[in-house]
Amino acid sequence: MLTITDLSVNYGAVQALSSVSIEVPKGEVTAVIGANGAGKSTLMRTLSGLVKPGSGGATVGGVTITGRKPEDIVRLGVSLVPEGRSTIPELTVEENLRLGGLWRDKAERNSTHAQVFDLFPVLAQRRKMRADTLSGGERQQLAIGRALMSDPRVLLLDEPSLGLAPLIVTQILELVSRLARESDLAVLLVEQNAVTALRVATTGVVLNLGKVVMVGSGAEIASDEQLRHAYLGY
Amino acid sequence: MTTFIDYLLGGLGSGAIIALMALALVLIWRSTRVVNFAQVGQAMFTTFIALSIQTWTGSWYIALIGALAAGAVLGVIVQYLVLRPVKRNDTSGAIIATFGVLIALQAAAGMIWPGGSQAFPQPFNNSGIEFAGRVWPISIYDFVVIGITALLVLGLTLLFTKTSLGLSMRAAAFNPEVARLSGVRVSRVLTFGWALAGSVGAVAGVLVAPVSTISPNSFDILLVFAFTAAVIGGLDSLIGAISIGVFAGLVISLVSGYSDSGNAPVVALLLLALNLILKPEGIFSHHKARSV
Question: Of A145, A95, A93, A134, nearest to B184 (Cα)?
Fold first, then answer.
């Protein structure tokens, strides 16, 4: 579904990504893992249009997305949940969700809204409350819910585990992987927490200093001791 | 006691006008983190346009609508010509640029409408209402001013809380990045905000002109009061701008009544200083602190 080909990104003289190629099929979770500074967030920000690529690019269902504006990329079916539970604290739960699909046809938007409430019942209970009254886990659910409101074909998740209790991380990631299977969604998950990410991912991609150093099944990567020591630090 | 109440009543109309101008400042600040000092210049310019329309058509209503439209257009022009070229994140550069716009607008108005101060015709009776055996210091025109202000505030509240455009505007102001990722065309929304603020300021100008006069510099003092109200209200709060704006009108009326109207700006600046010392983030602000 999402095809990344030879993608390079430079910040001034620093090459943050060099010739990265990744295939993200639909119905599966693909995890990109690597240490701090490996280029994971840069990859996500480039795919969502916040950062311009140097060379190479990415397509979704054959349509090029890289180089476009974020507001156009989300309309092409690629939705990012940025790092750090990016909800808008001053808005209510309901408003944060509505924001995710304002441009869509009202009837379609309302049906997605109902699906999101089915998926995250706690958001339905708290719909009138301001987002900053939610717990960390609830806010992450809201951030994912907002991203789903655009009815994406590709969901980009940037470090969803950050600052959350392990049990909640597991619940959220299992829900995401179920969502991928049931809604035929292509999920690209970026994580520093490799163990958790590889548990739900069909395919794992190891990123180091902006380069892809290994691609394999989640289990393969998790069991490669040398790789773990070299790149993942455990 | 009756004098005190009289002074308070007499301050309501000017308070409403200060509130509108403060509201225009807050609308821009919320979305761009820039205090638009050109706002009164824009309002002065559109009030001159309104005066021309009034002279030509004889209708105050057409003049008011003309000012609304001209205010929106001028707001967009100011954003495109001045603030877009200023580098993003360079807010002090942008603020200085708004001063430049103010001076340019005042110079241009002096050339287009020469002859110094001009009277703006009274659209409604502006003498005190007679009621219960005495004349009260509030006129039909004051009620029109308060009514129009209330309608605008109601309209803006509905826009911000009930419509998709309003939600986009709030999201773009609070977190432009998340707004863009959600599909909001933030730069368009910002331009709409400039148009909206321009219109609100233009209404304030048309409303204040009949009770003062209109000249290229006649609204400068309004900027002082509106800026004070906006800052004390917290700069990003619409409710703050409105309530402190009205409050400022009352204080000015009391100060002018008990001492001299020349003391009002000094009192405004004292209140501003006091606010910045005691509660620098403003009374209605969402944010915890603001560096001064």
Answer: A95
